[in-house]
Specification:
Helix content: 25-40%
Order of helices and strands: EEEEHHEHEHEHEHHEHEHHEHHEEEEH
Strand order of the largest sheet: 3-12-13-14-15
CATH superfamily: Metal-dependent hydrolases
Number of helices: 13
CATH architecture: Alpha-Beta Barrel
Radius of gyration: 21 Å
Oligomer: single chain
Shape: globular
Largest sheet: 5 strands, antiparallel
Strand content: 15-25%
Length: about 425
C-alpha cells in the first residue's frame, strides 16, 4: 500500500520511533525484530465509523429484525441506562475486537451521554487498549416531543453540546502526525439535531481545526424524512449547512444519488461504508463503485455492534467486496481494492494520510497475517487475504508497539474484560 502499490516478497520493514524507517530486501541485518515468515504483512486496517458502546447490546430481541428507525426506538431505552462504567467497558471490548481483526486506527461516534457519561470514558478506554483513536463528540438535541426520533431523556441542550465539544477538543485533541487521539465534532443525524446545531457545529469544528462527522442518506426512511422536513435530499441539506469538504465524512450514504455523488467528489467529502450493518438493517447496498470511480474518498466502518453485530474489520472488507460484485458483477471490486479501501482509503477519510501505508515516514501501524493455516491452505495467491485468509491477526503493531502477539491481546486481560461485559449485559437484560 505504498504509492506504487508494490507487493514485496521476503522484504524487511524497519521501524524507528513509531514510524516506518525503511522497507526493502536484506536491509535488517542483525537488528532484533519479529519473524514474519509464512505471513502477509499489511498496513493496519482503519475503521471509519463505530458506536463502541453498542457492543453491550448485540442481538437484542425486538431489534433483530427491524429497520433503522424501529431498531433505534427499541434500543434507546436500554442505552438510556448506561453509566460511565458501561461506556468504558464496552469501548474496550469493541476496540479489542477491532485489534484482533487487524485494526490499528478507529474512529468512534458517541452521541448519547446518559447518567453522567462523557466522551473521555471512551478515550481512556482506547489509551489502555493501545489503538490509535479518533473519537467524535456526537449529540442529539431534538427529542420525540419536538418531532425527532430519540426520547427526550436522551437529548441535550444545544448550548451545552457546543460547550462540551470545546472542552473535549481542548483537553484531548492532538494534531501531531503521530497522534494517538484526535477529536471530532459529530451531531448524530439530521433527524436528531436541529439545523442550527448542524451549522454551529460545523463552524466550531472549523474554528478548532478538527474533522466533522454524521450519518447521512442511510436508508429510504432517511431520504423520506429529509424531503418531508427539510424539503430537499440529504446531500443538498448537508451542503446548505457547510457539511461538505475534505474535513467532513458521512456514515453510510447508501442512498446517495448521482448529483450527491458528484457533490462529494467535487468537494472531497468522505464516506464511511458500513456494508454489514447496511445488510443487517436492510438499508441497501451503498454505491461504492460509483463513489470510487467519481473520486470520492471511501473508507470502511463496522458500525455499532447492535447493528452488525460484530466488529471484525477484515470481515467487513470482504463483505464490501462481495456486495459490489452482487450489485455490479464479479469484476466490480477486487480483493486488493477492498483491502486498499480498508487501509489507506480509511486513513485518508479520517485525515490521517500518514497511516494506512507501509512506506518510509509513515506511522508504524502494521498487521501481520499468518497464512500458513487452514484458511489459506491451497491458496495460489496468499496476498488475496479477502478471498482466502485469516480473519484475525497474528501480530498487530501500533506506533511501533506490539498490541497483539501470537493472536493474543497484550495490553488487557481479555478474559476478565469479556466476563465483566457479559455480566453488565445480563444486568441490563434483567432490568428491561
Amino acid at each position: 500500500m505504498d504509492e506504487a502499490r508494490r507487493e514485496l516478497l521476503d522484504a524487511d520493514v524497519i521501524i524507528d520511533a513509531g514510524a516506518v524507517a525503511a522497507v526493502g530486501k536484506g536491509i535488517a541485518g542483525d537488528l532484533p525484530g519479529i519473524d514474519a515468515a509464512g505471513c502477509v504483512v499489511t498496513p493496519g486496517l482503519v475503521n471509519t465509523h463505530h458506536h463502541l458502546y453498542q457492543s453491550l447490546t448485540r442481538a437484542v430481541p425486538g431489534g433483530q429484525d427491524a429497520l433503522l428507525f424501529g431498531w433505534l426506538q427499541t434500543l434507546y431505552p436500554i442505552w438510556a441506562r448506561f453509566t460511565p462504567e458501561h461506556m468504558f467497558t464496552s469501548a474496550q471490548v469493541g476496540l479489542a475486537e477491532l485489534a484482533l481483526s487487524g485494526c490499528t486506527l478507529s474512529s468512534d461516534h458517541l452521541y448519547l451521554y446518559p447518567q453522567g457519561c462523557r466522551l473521555e470514558d471512551t478515550i481512556h478506554a482506547a489509551a489502555e487498549v493501545g489503538l490509535r483513536f479518533q473519537p467524535t463528540r456526537g449529540a442529539m438535541s431534538i427529542g420525540v416531543s419536538q418531532g425527532g426520533l430519540p426520547p427526550d431523556a436522551l437529548v441535550e441542550h444545544e448550548a451545552d453540546i457546543l460547550d462540551d465539544c470545546i472542552r473535549v477538543i481542548d483537553a484531548f485533541h492532538d494534531p501531531d502526525p503521530g497522534s494517538m487521539c484526535r477529536v471530532g465534532v459529530a451531531p448524530c443525524s439530521p433527524f436528531s439535531v436541529s439545523r442550527e446545531l448542524m451549522r454551529d457545529a460545523a463552524q466550531l469544528a472549523r474554528d478548532k481545526g478538527v474533522m466533522m462527522h454524521t450519518h447521512l442518506a442511510e436508508n429510504e426512511e432517511d431520504i423520506a424524512y429529509s424531503q418531508e422536513v427539510f424539503g430537499c435530499r440529504p446531500g443538498e441539506y448537508a451542503e446548505s449547512l457547510g457539511w461538505v469538504g475534505p474535513d467532513v465524512w458521512h456514515a453510510h450514504c447508501v442512498k446517495l444519488d448521482a448529483a450527491e455523488i458528484a457533490l462529494f467528489a467535487r468537494t472531497g467529502t468522505g464516506v464511511a461504508h458500513c456494508p454489514c450493518s447496511n445488510c443487517r438493517l436492510g438499508s441497501g447496498i451503498a454505491p461504492v463503485r460509483a463513489l470510487r470511480d467519481a473520486g470520492v474518498p471511501v473508507g470502511l466502518g463496522v458500525d455499532g455492534s447492535a447493528s452488525n453485530d460484530a466488529g471484525n474489520l477484515v470481515a467487513e472488507a470482504r463483505q464490501a467486496m462481495l456486495l459490489q460484485r452482487v450489485a455490479n458483477g464479479a469484476d466490480a471490486m477486487s480483493a486488493r481494492e477492498a483491502l486498499e479501501i480498508a487501509t489507506r482509503g480509511g486513513a485518508d477519510v479520517l485525515g490521517r494520510s500518514e497511516c494506512g501505508r507501509i512506506a518510509p515516514g509513515m506511522r508504524a501501524d502494521i498487521a501481520i497475517w499468518d497464512v500458513s493455516g487452514i484458511e489459506a491452505a491451497g491458496s495460489w495467491d496468499p496476498a488475496a487475504l479477502l478471498l482466502s485468509g485469516p480473519t484475525t491477526v497474528r501480530d498487530l503493531i501500533v506506533e511501533g508497539r506490539e498490541i497483539v502477539r501470537d493472536g493474543q491481546l497484550q495490553t488487557l486481560d481479555l478474559p476478565a474484560l469479556v466476563a465483566r461485559q457479559n455480566q453488565m449485559a445480563r444486568n441490563l437484560r434483567e432490568a428491561t
